[in-house]
């Protein structure tokens, strides 16, 4: 692997190839261990059947209500919230309410996104709307958002108020990003800048909140929290760039989604937008195909064969969209590292932040 990559006129240092996987897994496990009991207690507050529907979504029970050990997700956000508390000199437990609040907002968005996107699978299981119906998916999502604010405000401190303001601002941006994402699906052209703005709202804002909310609860000043937020924001853009790659070329066994999942939804993700922006014969052919796709009714598009999606994926790759997006993930990773470098924290905590960021760029699910 070369030491630098040229990307949009800049020199980029790629993520460290030797990721401390064991260390990152320990961080993610710690996030689950400290957050899950509080998360379960929060979900138990919901009125039936919302408590059961939420428990199914989190993987705690199966569709029949039997106890299950489902995949609860990557837990990157809780891990960041606990780390950020430590960056402020507090115990990781100080960040636990923030970790839970961010996780509740994240899952609120997943419940609604799955319904809006028509996704039938998440984490290798049927989605909530498919099992319990659209109405429950909407109601439980709303309830999780309300719980997120409740968890923070119950602390009753000035720091909790500051944390809540950051969470609500991030949630508004997340909703803005989802609205942009949906509006782009039926547009023939979206610029790279528009796509990055959308992904910064949809993914970057909540990861930025996760990276700063524990520090706020731990008593950090706004300068420290803002800098950690910048780290999280650019990490979020790197995270989403990798998600965009997996949304087209990811292994369904690892991702839990169908092959070509983003192409099936006509998403204007970074690989697509970069390929359309590249110019050349492959880019022009892709533009013609996607322009025709934009005017097809949903039922006709749903009947496309695997070969038709494979043709679109091949054109995106040949036009350079796959390579550009991979480089963009590394550029955003480098920007996150730059922000992290300006925060004073113990060396051990900094090493964990770096390892988590490296993991985000090389993950396969």
TrEMBL record:
One of its GO terms (biological process) is isoprenoid biosynthetic process. Keywords: Magnesium, Metal-binding, Transferase. One of its GO terms (molecular function) is (2E,6E)-farnesyl diphosphate synthase activity. Pfam families: polyprenyl_synt (PF00348). SUPFAM superfamilies: Terpenoid synthases. Its EC number is 2.5.1.1, 2.5.1.10, 2.5.1.29. PROSITE patterns: POLYPRENYL_SYNTHASE_1 (PS00723). InterPro entries: Isoprenoid_synthase_dom_sf, Polyprenyl_synt, Polyprenyl_synt_CS. Belongs to the FPP/GGPP synthase family. PANTHER family: (2E,6E)-FARNESYL DIPHOSPHATE SYNTHASE (PTHR12001:SF71), GERANYLGERANYL PYROPHOSPHATE SYNTHASE (PTHR12001). This is Geranylgeranyl diphosphate synthase type I.
């Amino acid at each position: 692997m070369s030491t630098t990559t040229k990307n949009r006129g800049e020199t980029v240092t790629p993520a460290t190839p030797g990721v401390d996987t064991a260390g990152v897994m320990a961080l993610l496990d710690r996030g689950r261990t400290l957050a899950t009991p509080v998360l379960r207690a929060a979900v138990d507050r919901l009125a039936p059947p919302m408590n059961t529907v939420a428990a199914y979504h989190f993987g705690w029970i199966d569709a029949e209500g039997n106890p299950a050990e489902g995949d609860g997700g990557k837990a990157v956000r809780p891990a960041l919230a606990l780390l950020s508390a430590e960056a402020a000199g507090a115990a990781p437990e100080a960040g636990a309410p923030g970790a839970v609040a961010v996780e509740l907002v994240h899952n609120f968005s997943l419940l609604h996104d799955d319904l809006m996107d028509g996704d039938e699978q998440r984490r290798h299981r049927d989605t909530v709307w498919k099992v319990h119906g659209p109405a429950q998916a909407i109601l439980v999502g709303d309830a999780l958002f309300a719980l997120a604010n409740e968890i923070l405000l119950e602390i009753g401190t000035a720091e909790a108020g500051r944390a809540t303001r950051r969470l609500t601002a991030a949630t508004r941006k997340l909703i803005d990003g989802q609205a942009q994402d949906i509006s782009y699906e039926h547009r023939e052209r979206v610029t790279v800048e528009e796509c990055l703005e959308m992904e910064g709202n949809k993914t970057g804002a909540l990861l930025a909140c996760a990276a700063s909310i524990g520090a706020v609860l731990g008593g950090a000043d706004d300068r420290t929290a803002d800098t950690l937020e910048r780290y999280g924001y650019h990490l979020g853009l790197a995270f989403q760039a990798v998600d965009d790659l997996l949304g087209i070329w990811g292994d369904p066994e690892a991702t839990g989604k169908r092959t070509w999942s983003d192409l099936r939804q006509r998403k204007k993700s970074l690989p697509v937008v970069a390929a359309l922006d590249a110019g050349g014969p492959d880019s022009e052919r892709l533009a013609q195909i996607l322009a025709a796709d934009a005017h097809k009714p949903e039922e006709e598009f749903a009947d496309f064969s695997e070969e038709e999606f494979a043709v679109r994926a091949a054109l995106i790759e040949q036009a350079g969209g796959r390579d550009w997006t991979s480089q963009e993930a590394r550029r955003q990773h480098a920007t996150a590292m730059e922000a992290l470098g300006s925060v004073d924290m113990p060396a051990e905590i900094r090493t964990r932040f770096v390892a988590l960021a490296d993991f985000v760029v090389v993950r396969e699910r």
